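Hello,

Our lab assistant flagged a job as stuck in the queue for most of the afternoon. It eventually completed. Since we weren't sure the result was trustworthy after the delay, we are filing this so someone can double-check. Below is the sequence as submitted and the structure that was eventually returned. Let us know if re-running is recommended.
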Amino acid sequence: MNRINITINSRVYTVVANEEEGYLKRLCDYVNEKVKLVLNEGTHVMGEKPLVLAALNICDEYFKLLDSTAPYENMSEIIAKNKQLEAEMRELRKDSSNAQEKIDELMSEAKLTEKMFDENEQKVKFLEGQISTLESRLKKQRSEFAIREKELLDMLENKI
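-- returned structure --
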């Protein structure tokens, strides 16, 4: 406990408090400023009246401050909601990362499939070329066979 002498409106008061001296002097300076404002308003107030009016002004500031901070009364709810949203955001980032990995994997598979398709398409074209060549040779051989068959038939007829 600190025992400190402070002066408010030219009167000395002894204050016993847990707070540090510097903090109590700041409070004293603030109260003295409020008392000076009351005294400077031009009305002649004497005795304890300046202190009472200063106290009312300080209370007015305090209550206005309380009213302005009312939305923050549910700060623990806001903090809890914030933690929940942060957890959801981490989960979404994880899901996004997993999805990106899956997309990359599928893209790799698609490229491999496309490469295999191109290779097979080339093989098909090659085989179609082979088939065309073989069909041409077959046609030529049939033609030659037909000619030879005719020649053989002609030879057989001439022998008979």
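-- support follow-up --
The delay was a queue issue, not a problem with the job. The result is valid. Residues 65 and 114 are 69 Å apart (CA to CA). Residues 76-160 form one domain.
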